[in-house]
Amino acid sequence: MGRIFKPKPVNLTIGILTKIPELLPETGKALEASFGTIDLKSDVLPFYFTDYYREEMGEGIRRQFYSFEKLISPDEIAIIKVQTNTLEEVIAASMKYPVKRPVNIDPGYLNESRLILASTKDFSHRIYLQHGIYAEVTLNYRRGGYESFPWTFPDYKSSEYQNFFLQTRALYVKKLKEGM
């Protein structure tokens, strides 16, 4: 019989989609209030991979990723997704923005071997966690880089995204060595 062990902590990452530039720092501050200090930010990247969000969010969508300093337990990701969905709803309900969905907040985590994303949508490759939240392995780390799967979103296959995750992974490994 295998022994049961507590999993290693993981590195929380959150991606934000918006066409409203001021929402990136505002949302970042709200996320820091909930999850602690952001220790790494990606560049603000154009989002041109799909038209999926266009009707709700408009044209000219941009994405920015954040890595958080404090490591989390992997089982926290479901609650974090519920919290980020609530933040999205609060921002939309403010009615301050000219689109139905001003921001999309996508939490996930990475460890040495993979990137996991949380979702409210069930599908064949997703596993139910709790509170209406599912998880999927989106990228696999192997031989110094990330590999995708047939279900990996096209933007997550891009070199810009993967470069951010490689930087985050290096930071994560350093945190583990330092006992953070």
What does this structure look like?
- The protein is an alpha+beta fold and 180 residues long.
- The protein contains four helices and nine strands; from the N terminus they run βαββαβαβββββα.
- A hairpin with a 2-residue loop joins strand 8 and strand 9.
- The radius of gyration is 16 Å and the shape is globular.
- The mean pLDDT is 95.
Radius of gyration: 16 Å
What is the tally of helical segments? 4
Number of strands: 9
Class computed from helices, strands and strand pairing? alpha+beta
- What portion of the residues fall into strands of 2 or more residues? 25-35%
Distance between the termini: 31 Å
Relative helix content: 25-40%
Give the low-confidence spans. none
The mean pLDDT is: 95
Tell the overall outline.
globular
Question: Biggest sheet, open or closed, and with what strands and sense?
Answer: 9 strands, antiparallel
Summarize the structure.
This is GTP-binding protein. The chain is 30% helix and 32% strand. The chain has 180 residues and is of the alpha+beta class.
Which properties best describe this structure?
180 residues, alpha+beta, 4 helices, globular, DUF4416, GTP-binding protein
Helix and strand layout, with pairings?
Elements: E1 10-18, H1 23-35, E2 38-41, E3 45-46, H2 54-57, E4 62-72, H3 77-93, E5 104-110, E6 114-119, E7 127-130, E8 133-142, E9 145-148, H4 159-178
Antiparallel strand pairs: 1-4, 1-5, 2-4, 3-4, 5-6, 6-8, 7-8, 8-9
